[in-house]
Amino acid sequence: MRKLWGRTSSSNVMKVLWTLDELALPYERIDAGGAFGRTREPEYRAMNPMGLVPTLQEDDGWSVWESNAIARYLCNEYAPDGPLYPASPRGRAAVETWMDWSLAHVIAPMVVIFFTHIRLKENERDWAAEKKAREDCGRLWKIVDAKVAAQPFLCGDHLTLADISMGCWVHRWFALPIERPNLPNLARYYETLKTRPGFTTHVALPLE
Question: What is the pTM of this model?
Answer without folding.
Answer: 0.96
